[in-house]
Design a protein that fits this description.
The complex is a heterodimer of chains A (111) and B (112). Chain A has strands spanning 5-7, 10-13, 19-24, 31-37, 43-50, 53-56, 65-68, 75-79, 88-95, 100-102, 106-110. With 111 residues, chain A is mainly β. In chain A, strands 2, 4, 5, 6, 9, 10 and 11 form a seven-stranded mixed β-sheet that branches. Chain A has a four-stranded antiparallel β-sheet with strand order 1-3-8-7, with no helix packed on it. In chain A, β5 (43-50) and β6 (53-56) form a beta hairpin. The model of chain A has no long low-confidence stretch (mean pLDDT 94). Chain B is mainly β. In chain B, the strands form two sheets. A five-stranded mixed β-sheet of chain B has the order 1-9-8-3-4, with no helix packed on it. In chain B, strands 2-7-6-5 form a four-stranded antiparallel β-sheet, with no helix packed on it. The relative contact order of chain B is 0.35. Classes of the chains: A mainly beta (111), B mainly beta (112). The A-B interface holds A 4, 31, 33, 35, 37, 42-45, 48, 56, 89, 91, 93, 95-105 and B 34, 36, 38, 41-46, 49, 93, 95-105.
């Protein structure tokens, strides 16, 4: 049973470009969570999704950020018009009704 | 979700038991205690969780006080690879999944 898969592992974008981060949950998991970790800081919750629904987006910035978890395929975290301050590690986790398991993250660098 | 309080950092000699405390005095009856760790900049790793009984698995033991206001994660024989930031998280279990809210955790340094 493969773990949570995130890709790409590393992503470099120029300011103003779009970044798309993908997360494939563990088999049988229908809940996905996205977290952001700025350099030398803690993990900050961004958004919690179930299939086709956003359950809690209280941690999402109001502009430029969006997330989806379609019926088929991975969850996508999309950042439009990236800025240097978006440079961070983005972690995805998935769960069923119990414990959540994390992927290895996508490290976004905005140049 | 209830807040947790953990020491900022701890040291432990390799081969000795590492006992990491966590205070969660405002925990509610339906809230579980979860422990995760993050080694360097890797993804957080699930360790163990419990409601009110003590729990043990291949990684660690979790001791929860009778009043559930505090708990201790025990790594019985710490190794250098256990050096990490350890997070104690209280999470509601209402029949549907809920988010994990990470605090600042305890930075455990295992030394020779």
């Amino acid at each position: 049973n493969a773990g949570v898969m995130q890709n790409p592992r590393h992503l470099v974008r120029r300011r103003g470009q779009e970044a798309r981060l993908r997360c494939s949950p563990m088999k049988g998991h229908s809940h996905v969570y996205w977290y952001r970790q700025l350099p030398e800081e803690g993990l900050k919750f961004m958004v919690y999704l179930q299939k086709e629904n956003i359950i809690d987006e209280s941690g999402m910035p109001k502009e430029r950020f969006s997330a989806e978890f379609p019926k088929e395929g991975p969850s996508i975290l999309r950042i439009q018009q990236v800025v240097r301050g978006d440079s961070a590690a983005y972690f995805c986790a998935s769960s069923g009704q119990g414990e959540a398991f994390f992927g290895q993250g996508t490290r976004l660098t905005v140049v | 979700d209830a807040k947790t309080t953990q020491p900022t950092s701890m040291d432990c000699a390799e081969g000795r038991a590492a006992n990491l405390p966590c205070n969660h005095s405002t925990i509610s009856g339906n809230e579980y205690v979860y422990w995760y760790r993050q080694i360097h900049s890797q993804g957080p790793q699930y360790i163990i969780h419990g409601l009110k009984n003590n729990e043990t698995n291949e990684m660690a033991s979790l001791i929860i006080t009778e009043d559930r206001k505090s708990s201790t994660l025990i790594l019985p024989h710490a190794t250098l690879r256990d050096t990490a930031v350890y997070y104690c998280i209280v999470r509601a279990n209402t029949g549907t999944a809920s988010k994990l809210t990470f605090g600042t955790g305890t930075r455990l340094q295992v030394t020779l």
